[in-house]
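Summary for the lay section of the report: proteins are chains of building blocks that fold into shapes. Here we show the chain for N-acetyl-gamma-glutamyl-phosphate reductase and then a coded description of the shape we predicted for it.
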Amino acid sequence: MTTAVFIDGEAGTTGLQIRDRLAGRDDIRLVQLDEATRKDDAARRDAFAQADVAILCLPDDAARAAVAMAGDTRIIDASTAHRVAADWVYGMPELPGQRDRIRDARHVANVGCFATAAISMLRPLTDAEILPPDHGVVLTGVSGYTGGGKALIAEFERGAAPAYYLYALSQGHKHLPEIARYGGLDRKPLFQPAVGAYAQGMAVQLHLHADLLPGGIAGYARIEAALREFYAGDPFVSVEMPGERIDPQALNGTNRMAISVQGDGNARVTVAAVLDNLGKGASGTAVQNLNLMIGAEETAGLI
Ligand SMILES: NC(=O)C1=CN([C@@H]2O[C@H](COP(=O)(O)OP(=O)(O)OC[C@H]3O[C@@H](n4cnc5c(N)ncnc54)[C@H](OP(=O)(O)O)[C@@H]3O)[C@@H](O)[C@H]2O)C=CC1
Ligand SMILES: CC(=O)N[C@@H](CCC(=O)OP(=O)(O)O)C(=O)O
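The coded shape description reads as follows.
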């Protein structure tokens, strides 16, 4: 028995990566449109109707419109449009109880790339009551330029972008609502993202003064223990020993995320997460969610 999957936006950055991860699987049959019809609404409606599951790899407005075309077809939306929407299940399998919700869901909102890293570091600490929900959280991060889709890729490839730049300077990054909600925070964090002149891979850091957390300095050791406990047995997320350098590209091509805790050995702590923005940050998690929804092995097609 095969599952029919339509990737709407298959020609885009995320869509192509999902296609590559599904190609060759004998439990999946791709419903595909050619270059001439991929943006034709009648052809897309027909593709939705043929599919058991559709994966939307579209800009937010197009994703909202696609949901209206999709009828009863189950959806995984890779865009930001439905991440905190009522009636959508948040597609982050690592959250407590979430795998069962994803298995049963009709509409799954795939977690954002920076949000994957941020929530993965925050949620174990808020659940363990190490980090209070009203704590003033500070996050920084860098992504490769593929994180900005075809438009940003083109800008870098024609040499029109700086080698490294900061953006979302007014604290309005589109992932903040999902980070606060699923990270277990009442107070929106400060988040400063950046883009580097390399294609893919990201590193995100959570900066903490452990002596300001409840329990004071003891928080430092508890941070790593809480992370290890949260991810014990997880197929893709690991808590690693800190090294001398953090390489945002270290896990490119994989669905893995590595979290490490470092600092001055005292109260000043940084927790860091490394992942591939196009892998674990987008297409890998979309495939992981698809696997859960169709009853396949959660790790099928993923490394
Ligand atoms: N890149 C990343 O790291 C991540 C991206 N995402 C999200 O995934 C979604 C896709 O992003 P990304 O792949 O980077 O973007 P791209 O710009 O690379 O791809 C988007 C694709 O959608 C197509 N498209 C646009 N409008 C329509 C429409 N009305 N009907 C059919 N196809 C349409 C585009 O066509 P055309 O080729 O003609 O432009 C393009 O092929 C976005 O919502 C993004 O936020 C999520 C996590 C990470
Ligand atoms: C480098 C870059 O521009 N990154 C994008 C996020 C990547 C992305 O599109 O993520 P979601 O679809 O998961 O929101 C940004 O910061 O807006």
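Put simply, here is one thing we learned. The chain has nine helices and 13 strands.
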